Predict the structure.
Amino acid sequence: MERVAVVMMFLFLLTCSVSSCRKEAPVPDELIVFIQGVNEEEGYAYLLWEDRIYVPYCAANQSDRGNLIGMNADKENEKIYEYKGYPVTEWIISYLDVKLMPSAMLYREINVTDIPEGLSSEYGWNVSK
């Protein structure tokens, strides 16, 4: 019986570490609705808000998420957050909240050329031309 309790505690802690067991930031009165598009030529999905196009830049740590600012109109379980310390007109984090493997992706507004120190991308559409 003690072994079962230890296994249950381990599973609980594992679940917390995967889901990060963190308190969610308060939901703003109005969320920004991002539209998902696809660049067929380059083969990636992007997010569109007003006249801004956000392209995937690199994987992000969940701890880099700032306040919740929006949602993906095309994916119910994808929420959009501030990237801590940077304006949402330049950088955002998309957080896909799925049970088995939640993931966070940092997006760069396509016209932004000032890349924060320590960030790099392997995606061809992020290479300066």
The chain has one helix and seven strands. The domain at 24-113 is CATH 2.170.150 (Metal Binding Protein, Guanine Nucleotide Exchange Factor; Chain A).
